[in-house]
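Lab notebook: predicted structure, single chain.

Context: the supervisor wants predicted structures on file for every construct in the current expression panel, including those that have not yet been purified. This is the next one on the list. No modifications to the sequence; it matches the entry in the shared construct table.
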Amino acid sequence: MLVVNGQYPGPTVEANEGDTIIVHVKNEIPRVGTSLHWHGLLQNGTAWMDGPAGITQCPIPSGGSFTYQFKIEGQYGTFWWHAHAGGQLTDGLYGALIVHSVNDPWKRGVDYDYDQILIMGDWYHNTSAEILKALDTPQGYLGSQASPPPYSAMFNGFGTWNCEKFGSPDTCYTREPFELNVYPNKRYRLRIINTAAHAMIYHSVDEHTLDVIEADNTPISSAKVSGLHRIQTHNGQRYSVILKTDQGKPGDTFWMRGEMNEVCFPYILKDGSNTTLAVLRYIDEGSNYKSTTHLPTTKDWKDKLGKDCRDVESSK
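Prediction complete. Output recorded below exactly as produced.
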């Protein structure tokens, strides 16, 4: 795994439209270069700050440093940053980038009450360097030269995995799922970012519908993408949805699901974990409320996932 400032996912960058972002990068990865790309930003007048190694800049050498500096003009919404050298994104070098603006038609305090980033990712049990080295042989990786499917999906850096399937007690640890605490009868803007290397991921919340209000930093208002049971995102895509917390009371819990669309994969892993789970927990700050720790027992929506590897139709 590769991390930034000891964090996975990496630090969130937040700015206002019109701000200048300055990021100092020191490459402490042994023996290889790196670079950072600011996904979705146009970089008008600052193309050399875009980040793809070998295209807009030389890689930052191991032990070297580089400062990114650019102004955000005419854009706002949900973006992200990630490594753009080799397969380092696959190894964990990424994070959210949020640009706030008075020009955003969706106003906090008017159209929604709280803002929450949900980084959806996928995970491999080998480093990208190991995978790429194997793919460059006649045998390939896992017996195939096709782009391999990941072993599992991730919610804000938390995965769901049965350690009996992989590794040993010394290398595999069972971890509690990611939790999102919410207050009843509020509206949460979930900024869903697909940082996966390969997986198309369906995001859903048991017994709660989702209203799409943003797609790739473009505001949306359409009945066609309101009241959805699931929202699918592919690599690099960002969607904001409104989650209304009107289905529970303090102490109630619901599963949040991130399910990879296996139709997009060239083959299926027998020991893969297709779905990762997170907890939506209703809370209250009142004196009579006692915090709970129990896990949900809710069921998934009955409608099946789409069989096609395709995006949400949000143009109408």
